[in-house]
Amino acid sequence: MMKLSSSIACFWYVFMIIISLYSVEAREVVYNVVTKFGANPNGKTDTTNSFLNAWKTACNSAGYNSAIIYVPRGKYVLNQAIFKGQCKNNIYITFQIDGILLSPKDYSVLGKTGKWIAFEDVSRVSIKGGTIDARGMALWSCKLAEKKCPAGATQSLLFSNSKDITITGLTSINSQMFHIVINGCQNVHMEGVKVKASGTSPNTDGIHVQSSTNVNIIGATIMTGDDCISIGPGTFHLWIEKVVCGPGHGISIGSLGKGFDEPGVQNVTVKSVTFSNTENGLRIKTWGRPSDGFVRGVNFQGARMNNVNNPIIIDQNYCPHNEDCPDQISGVQISDVHYKDISGTSATRVAVNFDCSSKNPCKRITLENVKLTYRNQPAHATCINADGSASGFVEPASCLSW
């Protein structure tokens, strides 16, 4: 009897484990925006409400650990779409996109809204695959012709005040202004993202990060008309690796110091990146005006420059187009910036340019194993108010004072 009871208990234990595993697996639900919410993938019909209703339903799903909003192949026109948290039971929501999301054909529609696709106050959200196309070409032409034009959607995709975000395999093309913006977020992982816009498209930054902590950008390919990646105030613990940039304006910390009371940038790593025919490579830029901001703890390691105008540059007198320049002294303190294993070709004779603040000179700048040439000849380096050191093979010869 004892032996039989033990066998029954064992069987019951195994049965409950199987049921438990099945229950966990079964607690995922899939919502198809076409079959369940009526989205028409013909590239003409406005599908905004279908997407918003899919989000609302997924966000309020009871009894599930995760929900998938599935976007089948096809083209979906979206007006401004804002997805807001907080969702029930902290459910994990994945947008699985096999189709293309299109902005309205008339660029003035989004030009009045400020943003196109936005996630605000959300957590545990993932975007996998798909293409978002803001159709910004006509707006670029309007701006380049110096006509009276709307500003355009300030970003194609925005995550604001959110945490635990994953973006993988997404392609963003033809943004009206910024492609992807991460603002006020924690724990963001981007991998395999592609960005594409004309090299002459104005203000079309690829990925912009600000006021955010623990952000990873891995394996991105970015071709655009402004910074491939721009890093704004309040960014801490940012990791950038295996990024291909060009055309574009490079990877930039800043611009910083536009306001006095501004948070700094700290602990940034840029590793294994390639720049081709870009305006800049590795850049830090601050306005020439009083500020209590700072940049510290930056590691630039393993960068290849192919015909880059300014491969390594710190510019603390930043003023684009030399219009309305403040003509003051930058208060932003730049320190502990390390350049290691940087090689390739400069499109200009000055390959290394450190133009630092006279009030707060750059401190502890280091160069290690740097080889940059200009037309098969040694390039030049210039240093103003920059202290630091060089080690290993460094060409152009370091001008740092130490």
Automatic annotation (TrEMBL):
Pfam family, one: Glyco_hydro_28
InterPro entries: Glyco_hydro_28 (IPR000743), PbH1 (IPR006626), Pectin_lyas_fold (IPR012334), Pectin_lyase_fold/virulence (IPR011050)
GO molecular function: polygalacturonase activity
Membrane spanning stretches: none
Keywords for this protein: Cell wall, Cell wall biogenesis/degradation, Glycosidase, Hydrolase, Secreted, Signal
Protein's cellular compartments: Secreted, Cell wall
Highest taxon, organism lineage: Eukaryota
Signal peptide (UniProt feature, chain positions): 1-26
Protein's GO biological process: carbohydrate metabolic process; cell wall organization
Active-site positions on this chain: H249
Gene3D superfamilies: Single-stranded right-handed beta-helix, Pectin lyase-like
Family: Belongs to the glycosyl hydrolase 28 family.
Record's protein name: Polygalacturonase
